[in-house]
Amino acid sequence: EAVTRVAAVDLGATSGRVMSGRITRDRVEINELHRFRNGAVRARGSLLWDVLGIYRETLTGIGKVAGTGPLHGIGIDSWAIDYGLVDRDGELLGSTYSHRDARTDGVAEKVVAEIGAAELYATTGIQQLPFNTLYQLVAARGSAALEAADTLLLLPDLLGFWLTGAAGAERTNASTTQLYDVRTGEWAVDLCRRLGIPWSILPPLRDPGSVVGPLLPDVARDLGVGAEVPVVAVGSHDTASAVVGVPAETDRFAYISSGTWSLVGLELDRPVLTEEARLADFTNELGVDGTTRFLKNVMGLWVLSESLRSWSERRYQDVELRSLVAAAAEFEPLRTVVDISDPRLLAPSTAADPMPERVAGLAAEAGEPVPVSPVAIARCIVDSLAVAYRRYVRTAAELAGRTLDVVHVVGGGSQNEVLCQLTADACELPVVAGPVEAAALGNVLVQGRALGADLPDLAAMRAMVRRSSTIRRYEPTAGLDWAAAESRVF
Ligand code: ADP
Ligand code: LRH
Question: Which InterPro entries match (predicted)?
């Protein structure tokens, strides 16, 4: 039997992992061979990614995959939006900023005043997030690095460039930048010109499933593999790969890709660029095989993980994720709900401005009972996430004219049983939770097809995922007034 064996690098904002992926005639298997912590570093007042460290861990992981069997391909996906700049010699320039850095404060407002919100949305179809690549570049105008830049490379493309020497921009990730014209499928050059962004640094677009290139000879030598091993452009936006890995059986599904962020939405054939979609501030990102990911970015489990970090730094020794969530399940439901996507929750927790106190502050401001204990805060976070999921699953379905049978939850957050049940209750739909590593599976499957596996379409890939993963179903239960909770927030 023909077996395709690949390395899937999946980089999340809080952890990176490298899997060996195996595709046989009817199954896909992944095996995690390397995992490392990730997080931004504050230096000179800015929040930066340790890109060389990420590259080192990526190489270590690929080396482990190569060391345990044949290697037919390598694919990389990561969080969206962030980029590095290289000069004409291919040297990395300046710093690689995290989208959580404050340099974009107030920039979106200025751009909207200049271009107009309606035109911006008609061109890019993208949700107004303060950190969109467009706004990062406007914030960087006039900087020495941008002036010297030859090429902008989104993170997976930067790592791909180091592996192969080939520069390009994979389309699913390019579509998240707000520099991509969703109508033409090209870079939004005119928008860049009007904003004084050097559009010539935007590299040629490439489709998911295309080959980036063979490994550079020295890279192949260091890894101990043949230089013919290709790097394959997968859906290099982690959310695009995660949506490929959703085990849906029909098109009547919503998904929540639940990790550091929660991405809540639908898979559609084409973008929804109506005035209603703009006012609801939904995003139209590109998916694999020309699909549209019509979704909302929700602040996600970041709020919980940063609260945990804050408590552990203050030595609440008893606070651990699983026991905290279990205790929160027993706490009074829907006591406090807040807008979990409030931009004040975006920046990392610090001693001077801890995450739990920010959540409590939002509650006080909204006239909600103020949560104080870690359990009360955790309950407020999961309830608020479920209320947001209800809101956006329903809004997405309305805006797209879809009827839904099920909500699929994938990613690390699909292991949060309490949140999965609340999501089913709030959305009044069954939740199918898992796979945890949907993004890695999507990465492996798109590589597999590029390398010749018989996977004609997304339905075939999803059938493989269904056969090969552990998934759990949660039926909605009645009893809580989710509509009332929703109206307290929105
Ligand atoms: P990312 O790719 O954005 O780094 P992940 O998909 O790895 O994120 O998801 C990380 C999140 O998953 C964590 O913030 C945590 O809340 C949640 N999570 C991970 N493992 C568990 C678990 N065993 N139980 C509940 N939640 C979990
Ligand atoms: C999730 C994600 C999300 C983006 C954000 C920056 O990891 O890619 O889809 O909006 O990170």
Answer: ATPase_NBD, FGGY_C, FGGY_Carb_Kinase, FGGY_N, Rhamnulokinase
With tokens 């790097």, the residue in question is 231
Query: How far apart, in whole angstroms, are the C-alpha atoms of residue 490 and residue 487?
Result: 5
Q: Assess whether the C-beta atom of 133 lies below 6 angstroms from ligand 2.
A: no
Under 8 Å between Cβ of 153 and 202: no
For the annotated catalytic residues, the residue numbers are 238
164 Cα–ligand 2 center, Å = 25
How many A from CA of 262 to the centre of ligand 2? 8
Q: What is the DSSP letter of 50?
A: -
The pLDDT score that the predictor gives to residue 389 is: 98
State residue 1's pLDDT score.
Answer: 74
Contact between 440 and 29 under an 8 Å Cβ cutoff? The reply is: no
Beta carbon of 81 within 6 Å of any ligand 2 atom: yes
Q: Report d(CA 16, CA 404) in Å as an integer.
A: 33
Q: Phi first, then psi: what are they for 236, rounded to 5°?
A: -80, -10
Cα separation, 140 vs 147, in Å, equals 9
Q: Measured from the CB, is residue 13 less than 6 Å from ligand 1?
A: yes
| Residue 101: per-residue pLDDT | 98
Which amino acid does the sequence have at 320?
E
> Measured from the CB, is residue 15 less than 6 Å from ligand 1?
yes
225-237 per-position pLDDT tens digit:
998 999 999 999 9
Q: What is the model's pLDDT at position 318?
A: 65
**What local confidence, expressed as pLDDT, does residue 317 receive?**
61
**Ligand 1 centre and the CA of 103: distance in Å?**
28
What band does 452 get if pLDDT is binned at 50, 70 and 90? very high
The C-alpha atoms of residue 168 and residue 154 are separated, in whole angstroms, by 9
Question: pLDDT tens digit string along 21-42?
Answer: 999 999 999 999 999 999 999 9
Q: 466: burial class by Cβ within 10 Å (0-12, 13-18, 19+)?
A: middle
Looking at the DSSP bridge assignments, the partners of residue 256 are 264, 409
Write down the pLDDT at residue 315: 74
Work out the average pLDDT over 42-64: 98
Question: For residue 61, what are the contacts with CB-CB under 8 A and spacing of at least 6?
Answer: 7, 9, 16, 17, 18, 33, 34
Local confidence band at 2 (pLDDT 50, 70, 90 cut-offs): confident
CA separation for the pair 303, 359 (Å, rounded): 8
Query: Which one of the ligands is nearest to 79 CA?
Result: 2
Ligand 2, atom 4: nearest CA belongs to which residue? Answer: 80
Percent of residues in the chain assigned helix, strand, coil, to nearest 5:
40, 20, 40
| Predicted pLDDT at 418 | 97
Across 214-240, average pLDDT: 96
Q: How far is CA 318 from CA 20, 105, 459, in A?
A: 36, 36, 45
Q: Are 28 and 444 in contact (CB under 8 A)?
A: yes
